[in-house]
Every structure is written in structure tokens, then in C-alpha cells.
Amino acid sequence: MREDMTEAERHPRCPICGGTSFEPGPRGRMALTGVLPRCSGCKSLERHRAARVLFDRLGPARFAGWSAIQFSPDPTVEPAWFGSFELSVYGPPDGIDIQQIDRPDGAYDYVGCSHVLEHVGDDRAALCELLRITSPSGFVYLNIPDPFAEEVTRDWGFPKPEKHGHWRVYGRDVALRFARYIPRQPVLAYRGTDPVTAEATGAFLLPRSAEPYRWIVDRLGKDVELFSGPSLQSAHRSDNRN
């Protein structure tokens, strides 16, 4: 242990539940930094906590009155932040298929999709559907297993059992995939750090118009950059619906 460590480094606290007790992650794994990655209280992992820091910086008060839908259980956001909150667990018979979402256009201001896109056969259809149901004043929060860890996406064309049913492992060329699938949609990449493990991780934010684009960029500053699609930072009016 370094002698110059801060109190927060010596005794990390989960930004989601405030817990200070941690345990091994799935299949007993440790974090890449060598420390225990899963919060014993809320069961959050590195990606959840880094994303909670992101949302804390955006300011949860802004979401008051927003309609929200989350595809997959995820402790990153609090349902109480929103005016309405719907959860769909992808896969079970009553779960919504994100390749064909039975909801109206623009039905939600916040659409969260965490570690689901790699489980669907047609990720292009899924991306377009997620954007279709998002209102012009809102955005899609998209989290996929770290695409910066590999250079090239490996797509098997079927759900691989030994890869937890994933159809693919995304690589850095996911930007090219975004450019082909949703060319008129800006995709912002956020790179953050889990305050518990000090592990770097990230997520994508897809704002549907210039207003949420500018708000996200202003709040997150240098930690967010345009990853794919057009910049809306100086736009006065935008219609990016696909």
C-alpha cells in the first residue's frame, strides 16, 4: 500500500449504495487492478460505478419527469430519478426484444441498454429501435463489454455458448459499425474510472438532438468525445431521427 494514498483510496466507498465491503466478481475474478470488484451491498461492478459517476456529473435532478426504460437490470441509475421507469429483462418470455420493440416512436426520454447488444443477432435493428423509441429531448445510454480491449470485432453469426451467449465481441472498430448502421446519429464515448478499483472503463451516449448533446458535452467535458456521427455542439436545430 502506498504511503501517499488518500483516505478514499485506503477505504473506497461504492458511489451507488455507499458500501465499503467488496467481494470477488463473477466466477471469482478480481479487477484488473488486483482488488475485489463487486460491492457486497448493491452487487455493482466496475462499469456500474464508473457510470454512476457519469450520471452524478450529469445531475440526476434533470431527469425529474422523464420517462425511462432500462433493458437489463442495472444499478447504474435510480428509478426514483425519473417520472416513470420501466424495466425489461432481455431473454425471458415476457422480456422485450430490442430488435423489435413494441413501443411508440419517442416514447422515452431515457433509454438504457447495458450489456445486451452483444446478445442479439441483428445489432443494427436493435440500435435503430433503441433510437426510435427515444424522444428528441433525450438520449440512449449504451454499455457494451469494453470495445477498446480488442482492435477488431469478432462476430460469430450465432450465440456462442462458451461466450455467455454473445453473438460477438466488439472491438475498437465498433465506430465503423455505428457509422454504417446509424450514420446520422452522434455517438459520444465517455471514458471514466471506477472509484473503487481505479479501473478505467467507459460507455456510449447517443443524444437525439442538439440540446441533450450540448448538455452532455458541457457536463462531462474532456472525458467525453465524439466517437461517431455528426457533431451537434453548435447546432441550432437538429433532426437526427433514423
For the record, the CATH architecture stands as 3-Layer(aba) Sandwich
Q: Which outline best applies?
A: globular
Looking at CATH, which topology would you report? Rossmann fold
- Number of H- or I-type helical stretches: 5
Order of helices and strands: HEEHEEEHEEEHEEHE
Query: How many beta-strand elements?
Result: 11
Average per-residue pLDDT, rounded, comes to 91
- Into how many domains do the coordinates divide? 1
Q: How are strands sequenced across the largest beta sheet?
A: 4-3-5-6-10-9-11
Computed CA radius of gyration, to the nearest angstrom: 18 Å
Question: Helical amount among residues, as a percent range?
Answer: 10-25%
Organism: Sinorhizobium alkalisoli
Protein name: Methyltransferase type 11 domain-containing protein
Pfam family, one: Methyltransf_23
InterPro entries: SAM-dependent_MTases_sf
